[in-house]
Structure of DNA ligase:
Amino acid sequence: MNNQVPKTKSDAIARLGKLRKTIEHHRYLYHVLNKSEISPEALDALKHELVLIESAYPDLITNDSPSQRVAGTPLKGFKKVKHTVPQWSFNDAFSPDEMLDFDTRVKRFLKDSFGHTVTPSYVCELKIDGLKVVLTYEEGMLVTAATRGDGTFGEDVTANAKMIESIPLSLNKKVSGVFEGEVWMAKSTLERLNKEEIKAGHTPFANPRNLAAGTMRQLDSSIVKSRTLDVFIYDIGVLDIEIPNKQTLELSLLQKLGFKVNKHFTECKTIEEVISFWEKWQKKAPKEDYWVDGIVVKVNEKKYQDALGYTGKAPRFGIAFKFPAEQVTTVLEDIVLQVGRTGVVTPVAHLRPVSVAGSVVSRATLHNEDEIVRLDVRIGDTVILQKAGDVIPDIVQVVKEMRTGKEKKFIFPKYIEDTDGTTSPIERIPGQAAHRCTNKNMFSQKRRKFYYFVSKKGFDIDGCGPKVIDALLDAELISNFDDLFTLTVGDVLALPRFAELSAKNLIEAIDNARTITLGKFLTALSIEHVGEETAHDISEHFGSLEKIRKASLEDFNAVYGVGEVVAQSLAGWFADTHHCALLDRLLSETKIVNPERKAEKGIFSGKTFVLTGTLSTMHRDDAKAKIRALGGEIVESVSLKTSYVVAGENPGSKLDKAKLLGVPILDEKEFINMI
């Protein structure tokens, strides 16, 4: 049984009751009032869970369940329009397996209808995230434009539709019919409007979908004209001439009549081709100037569409194949404390496993005590999980309507249990939101320090990941960082799953890592408050480890980018006798080479860069080195002072902030051309 489906019927009844009430609440906000307390993706996730539970317990399906209706009710501010053609909504699929099931259902239904095996083709169209519009033409002239509403009645938005240049006031042929499409706003238009809103001291708009829907419901059509909406038409509801016998030909007819049709549609012979199209557009969609949240898949042949027909709420011949959601809902099952390499204690949410942005997630950080209080998150809560680009999943909201009263508040304990069974006291760091363990020798903390020491940001020892470090620590072969460089092949052979060749490879990798730059050396030491960029700044300022070891608090304070807290941490660390002894031992085993200094003059002199996303042609560290070599600075956050944001694949929120602030953005090709 799917892990989102309760194991007992009584639990299913309780969960369904909460889901239906919650979905109806957010459906009314989203579709009727054009407001949202949660994202469309999160609402989709709640609906998907509802359908999964009802599929497992079909006798619990009720006529008033959200799964049995088309969302939306006309607003009182507009005249009601009765649709001459019922306005259906598509069922959703979220995975290739669900699409394979759809293909099986279609073929089984057609075989039963025609008495023999039928192999349909499919048409894939982009699913534009906007507001559905229904256009009625008589003798080629636009007479009515309406929203979908509840599927039977919509809102008369004809005056507003006439303000959209891509909606023809007259067609190229004097035909009468009903045509359906999606009104949308360009992402570039949203950026322009938001700059105007910020300049006027107003709150910027959230996203193009909500703004497009809200604009179409404006009573003043001049506002619609000023906001530059657009439309794609994708379907013919009824027509007084013969409708083509294939969906692809229908799209061509729409274009000939003068409608704007999205050009990115294709015919697929098999469901496997459909899945490939879906996978391709997951990567391509962000580059378009409109929101795309999936693809719509329809049986191409009209005679097969007619045979398949409709269920109570959706066509059997089509389905919306959604992209992996960046926001989903799941249940927080526990909160567990985790000790980091610097001793900071982080609360980690243990979640009911759920797929978000294409990967299954069961853990998410809650950051600190203040974040738990801000979210008012409790054990047992239904939460909204978000993943943007390559950013680690984050809990952004609690769906409080789903609470049953059995949820438990989390109170930070005064002690934490280590992996070896011992306990250590924890305290809140004065002036900060974080807690830390007062025992600097916790075994779990030592593990994480070793993980970081051998990682790419530190000594970059190939093949020496967390599992190897765990084995070495558990076998008591290493206790301090320098112990790694004294290991022999014989030592490693004593570990489980190591043979002669793999042991030699590990020792060779350790030997290859003995030479390191000063910046990486400092980064690997896990000095509190000293990250990758700070370590590089210190390296560049002092130029050698000898000068750093002799530096005073005032000397550290004088480093550009180093504040009082970081300076105190550095001075304290290098004054510690144990750390001094560690450095001496490390220096006897390793060699620090001259750091890569920032060029005195270069094309990037005086320029600051922020990198976000994944670069496909070079490692991010190499990109940073190139920038520094050309005189530039690397910073972690975007501000008005940022010169450029370099955006790779799957960029995070830094790209959105850059757009909002008007910071120049370079894609990977543009960046490479510059360097």
Q: What stands out?
A: The CA atoms of residues 306 and 584 lie 81 Å apart.
